[in-house]
Amino acid sequence: MSVLIPCYNAEKYIRETLGSVFAQTWPSIEVVVVDDGSADDSVGVVESVAGDRIKLVKERHRGQTATLNTCIAHASGDYIQYLDADDVLAPDKIALQMKRLAGHPTSIASAEWGRFHRETSEAVFTPENVWRDLQPIDWLALSRINGLGMMFPALWLVPAGIVKDAGPWNEKLTLNNDAEYYTRVLLASDRVVFCKGARCYYRSGISGSLSGRKTSDAWLSQFRVLELCESYVRTREDSDRVRRGFSLSWQHMAHACHPYNPDLAERALTRARKLHPVAIYPDGGRAFRAISRLIGWRIARKLQTLSGRP
Fold it and tell me: 294 lies in which domain range?
């Protein structure tokens, strides 16, 4: 099986990420690291830690999704584990998932996940309603029951045949590209098997990270991701639960991107209203709630961002 790691300016974190891969109890792992033209010493760290235990590919900077496609082009394993260069796997994560996937080449495996900022010991693993075996469409609907959900790469172990059927990463997308990709991966499978005890760790709070960008291009990518995901899922099942979930997703996006891109926020709200009557409002502290009641959440959000809150 292959662990594929796209790397860009990750010198602070990739040592720990690679350490978690080399600590895996599964005996045979190919590791592919593709450096996306890092401006820091990421390559030097990889070479010093890994030596000849990995396949290191160096490219000019082209972006994360292009780097992920290069990763898969260099993979030879029958199973694929994508892993961001700042995330971490528990030692038996891959072994537990490989055991459950044995004899099931059209299923994919999911895992438990926890968020951390500095040490993996901080992570809290809070059970979710998708932490069980599910049909792909049920997983996609249940994960979006509150409009959110988590689909980051470390969660999954995927047979290479499903990766091929799902197609390449969409190189036009930046923010939230993994949601678009894994929606296609799930829909190319026939079952999602949950692996109790298989754990991965999602690092948060990195300054300048892709997921934290607030540029116009990033928000446009998020909008396009939601458009595509909605299209994929509603083609399979156009039900009340699906429309409600995507309505909530569009509202969450509108709240997050206002006031950075107010026009796009209004377009997102329009899409939400057309899908389902469910309505939510952005949350915040006591002052935020009071201002929202008096003069509306849009002005409250603007004041919130001016004060330094994202």
Answer: 212-306
